[in-house]
Amino acid sequence: MVVLRAGLCPGLTEEIVQLFRANGIRTVVDFVSSDLEDVAQKCSLSYKALAAVRRVLLAQFSAFPANGADLYEELKSSTAILPTGSPSLDQLLDSGLYTGEMMELMGAPGSGKTQVCLGIAASVSLGLKQHVLFLDSTGGFTASRLYQMLRAQAEAEEEQAALQRIQVVRVFNVYEMLSALQELRDRLSQQVVSSTGPLKMVVIDSVSAVIYPLLGGKQSEGLAIMMQLARELKALAREFCLAVVVTNQVTRDSSTGALKPALGRSWSFVPSTRVLLESKEPSGEKATTQRVASLAKSPRQPTGIQVELDIG
Amino acid sequence: MQREVGSLPLAPALRARLVAAGFQTAQELLETGPCGLSKEIGITKEEALETLQVVRQECHGDAARTAGASGATRKCTALELLEEEQAQGFIITFCSALDNILGGGVQLTKITEICGAPGVGKTQLCMQLAVDVQIPECFGGVAGEAVFIDTEGSFMVDRVVDIATACVQHCQLIAEAHQEEDHLKALETFSLESILSHIYYFRCRDYIELLAQVYLLPDFLSEHSKVRLVVVDGIAFPFRHDFEDLSLRTRLLNGLAQQLIIIANDHKSAVVLTNQMTTRIGQSQSTLVPALGESWGHAATVRLIFHWDNSQRLATLYKSPSQKESTIPYHITSHGFRDVQPSAITQNAEDIEMNPRKRPRREEEK
């Protein structure tokens, strides 16, 4: 729905825009879908000029079809699979996190979502020596726990370097999160190397904490912002070949009493992979660090597979 | 500068009008200028000016952050965070078993939630923490002040007097044992009157007052920058009746949680909330679970559940980002919150260095 404005393309001057507006053509879509001879007559402009403008506008605003073989080649060369550091989780995700896709971890409080996120960040930073951006909206990021995890896996020197590769941004409402993502986009498109280095992963813990205050009631603004966020994340993942990991809460279904992921049906279409984390024993007499991860949605694996994780 | 119009923090009606008029990025808005904007959308010039100001602020904020200034934003590497955390103190609870399972005590910059049945000791712990946050640094405390927001009316000043007197006596014993300069100097200012005068008490009677108080708290905290603890005693009480629309309740609670996290983070203080328990009726049995629903469980970073086992009070750490789940027993004495059997406490060398008073405590307690 782009409005026609002078200077949008060469050949589109202010007077032409005014003439169009007088005849009811406001946006690019209106112009491109109208009959050119008709417009030429009504606005008394030359057919050739109009055809030239239309060609430029189409080239600028339409999407170009690509063929499957080219897409496949491009995918093979640009996608990377990042191992998560936990062999059972890798098995669940078909060998790891795919760049260009979003993975969602959901679970009840205390089920281990933040721990798994920290583990993945530690593994990518230490094992693959890639940079990680961690957006924390719950205040649950504890650097000492991350340090503990790194110490268990690495030698002395590498931990400091690994910690420096993980950048943490604390965002507590959805506009701050969108600002942070915009800033990431600017940084990546300007390709500022040196301090930031090759960023391969963005972890967001948690996305529901910032969206929940806006959802519900009679306002539809919350859904609009949620979809903006979803679109921005997927665009970032696809354009810059990043793997995006988000965590989500669970709520109780009011009619059946079963646990279901938060943020509703609209959000359920956004991540390509969804993993549910649960405690091993539901009655829990003894405290345990075992968790069960089940695959709820995946483009590659059959759903319903379960593996056991140790978040200890 | 390519920020989409849909993602700017503007009023929804205004945003809808901007999108309908065909504006896509913030850059286009800035280029149009206030007069053009007011003509295209049909708003007054003042509104257009305000809108452009908001947009400019967002974009300049983005640009400054890209250029590397990290002043107002909370951005840092994990290494810097680790150093910050290691330098941060904890608020001790005087029950060393509880401090151990919490990793040293109640952590600053995090929200801790205490759930429990009535009478198990939640308000006692809150009052203990309001006194303990004021312990001077040479005794191992954080030397801060406390804000106590009471919704149930369970704050008893005479009880706080008992707890504070016991705390001051404890510190005096340590000072006598160690005989150091700064200990004696600190003791001059650490007295019953100073403790009581640094607990700021607010009474909120319904959820609107509570929300207003929490949203006004940042202003209060910027004037009283020494506050290191915010206690909300009874966050469940105002939200458990009077609500027909449960989704509104969830939304308000989540907004409240985010505001509390912002307070905890920006002012480097600990936030402690107490919650009630409710019964969930399952298929064959019923269990006691914390109130306010599933989504509230995600609000707190650390969750402690207090419960009874015959006549022994137990505390379980149910959710924490850095500690394992565990359960310990505790006692409530006339001095306040204490351990059960002080002789059974094992001590590490680190603990003795960090908290010198743990050694004398063994001799003092019976």
UniProtKB/TrEMBL annotation, chain A:
One of its GO terms (cellular component) is microtubule organizing center. SMART domains: AAA. It is found in: Nucleus. Residues 78-250 form the RecA family profile domain. Keywords: ATP-binding, DNA damage, DNA recombination, DNA repair, DNA-binding, Nucleotide-binding, Nucleus. InterPro entries: AAA+_ATPase (IPR003593), DNA_recomb/repair_RecA-like (IPR016467), HRR_RAD51_Paralog (IPR051988), P-loop_NTPase (IPR027417), Rad51_C (IPR013632), Rad51D_C (IPR047323), RAD51D_N (IPR048943), RecA_ATP-bd (IPR020588). Residues 280-312 are annotated as: Disordered. Involved in the homologous recombination repair (HRR) pathway of double-stranded DNA breaks arising during DNA replication or induced by DNA-damaging agents. Bind to single-stranded DNA (ssDNA) and has DNA-dependent ATPase activity. Part of the RAD51 paralog protein complex BCDX2 which acts in the BRCA1-BRCA2-dependent HR pathway. Upon DNA damage, BCDX2 acts downstream of BRCA2 recruitment and upstream of RAD51 recruitment. BCDX2 binds predominantly to the intersection of the four duplex arms of the Holliday junction and to junction of replication forks. This is DNA repair protein RAD51 homolog 4. It comes from Glareola pratincola. The gene is Rad51d.
From TrEMBL, chain B:
One of its GO terms (molecular function) is four-way junction DNA binding. Residues 339-366 are annotated as: Disordered. This is DNA repair protein RAD51 homolog 3. It comes from Glareola pratincola. It holds the Pfam family Rad51. GO terms for biological process: meiotic DNA recombinase assembly; reciprocal meiotic recombination. GO terms for cellular component: mitochondrion; perinuclear region of cytoplasm; Rad51B-Rad51C-Rad51D-XRCC2 complex; Rad51C-XRCC3 complex; replication fork. It is found in: Cytoplasm, Perinuclear region; Mitochondrion; Nucleus. SUPFAM superfamilies: P-loop containing nucleoside triphosphate hydrolases.
